[in-house]
C-alpha cells in the first residue's frame, strides 16, 4: 500500500500523529491514524486545517498521486548563546531531522516508482504479444 500524502507531509514536517490529531484537528490519534490510511474519509473542515498547516491546496493534500515535494533552504540566523557561539548545532540537528524525513519520503517514492515501472513493463509485454498476433 502506498503511503498517503497526509503521512508524508506529517513526517517531513516532523509532526507526530498525536500533535496533528489533538492540537490541530481536535480528534483522537487513532481517528487520525485511520485518516492517514484512508484520506477519502476526511471531513472538509479537517482537510482545510491540514492544507493550512502544510501550506498546500486541498486538492494536493487529498490527491492519490505520489506528491512531488520541493524544499526551500532556510537561512541560519545568528542565535548567540551564553558562550558566544552562533546556534549552528541546533541548526545542524534540525537539518539532520529534516533530511531524514526527506530521505524517507524519497525512498518511499522510489519504491512506488519501481513497482509502477514493473507493472508497466508487464503491460508492455502483454500488449506486445497481442500486437504481434494481430499483425501476423
Report on the structure:
- The protein has 136 residues and is mainly α.
- It starts with a helix and ends with a helix.
- It is built from six helices and no strands.
- The protein is elongated, with a radius of gyration of 21 Å.
Order of helices and strands: HHHHHH
Low-confidence stretches: 75-91
- Give the DSSP E fraction (strand runs of 2 or more residues): under 5%
Shape: elongated
**Care to count the β-strands?**
0
Oligomer: single chain
The major β-sheet equals: none
Could you tell me how far the N terminus lies from the C terminus, measured between alpha carbons in angstroms? Answer: 40 Å
Q: How much helix is in the residues?
A: 55-70%
Chain-averaged pLDDT:
78
Helical/strand content category? mainly alpha
What is the helix tally? 6
Radius of gyration: 21 Å
Summarize the structure.
With 136 residues, the chain is an all-alpha fold. Helices cover 66% and strands 0% of the residues.
Task: Give structural attributes.
136 residues; mainly alpha; 0% strand; 6 helices
Spell out the blueprint of helices and strands:
Elements: H1 5-12, H2 17-25, H3 29-37, H4 44-54, H5 58-62, H6 88-135
